[in-house]
Write a structure and sequence with these properties.
This protein has 188 residues and is of the alpha+beta class. It has 6 helices and 11 strands. Helix 3 crosses helix 6.
């Protein structure tokens, strides 16, 4: 039920008409290509949706100083990719920072070195991050801490994009690794 509600929620977030899901009878967002963006990966190379086409891609917004949700999500994605075995070589994941001030390409590279190498970290200037977040209807906000410094509130949805670059569905990690891997196999 939670996955169905997430599908309807994301459909509304992406301002898309909902279409019935054959599997559950619930409404999921109609696939569409999201607007282009230009960000920089951990190697300093330009990254855009076009550079990911041909691979189903999990897209997640987060930041390297996140205490729990981001590292847990990256770990779970890594485990799912392992479970896919050789077929998983066709999968990608995109970690889009919502904290470009601290998340330089080097900081992202260091952070993501603990996870599956198919997870690509990208950053950009404030305007570029704001534009891509707006395109995905992802929320983020800088929150000052009482002891100084700051943290980031952000959307914790994983967006599954098809090989053609179209949004498919929110991808739930609230299931076993085997079940999540089986779901991704459908899109390979």
């Amino acid at each position: 039920m939670a996955a169905a509600l997430a599908g309807v929620y994301v459909a509304r977030m992406l301002n898309q008409p909902a279409v019935p899901s054959l599997e559950s009878g619930t409404s999921l967002p109609q696939a569409r290509v999201l607007p282009d963006f230009n960000l920089v990966d951990t190697q300093g190379q330009a990254t855009s949706p076009a550079s990911l086409r041909g691979h189903p891609t999990l897209v997640f917004f987060g930041f390297t100083h996140c205490p729990d949700i981001c590292p847990t999500t990256m770990f779970e994605i890594s485990e799912i990719f392992k479970k896919l075995g050789p077929a998983g070589e066709r999968m990608r994941a995109l970690f889009i920072t919502v904290d470009p001030e601290r998340d330089t390409p080097k900081a992202l590279k260091d952070y993501l070195s603990s996870f599956d190498p198919r997870i690509v970290g990208v950053t950009g200037d404030d305007a570029a991050i704001a534009a891509v977040a707006k395109a995905y209807r992802a929320y983020y906000k800088r929150v000052p801490l009482a002891e100084g410094g700051y943290t980031m509130d952000h959307t914790a949805i994983i967006y599954l994009m098809g090989k053609d670059g179209r949004f498919v569905t929110p991808f739930s990690l609230k299931r076993t690794t085997d079940a999540a891997a089986a779901e991704l196999r459908k899109y390979l």
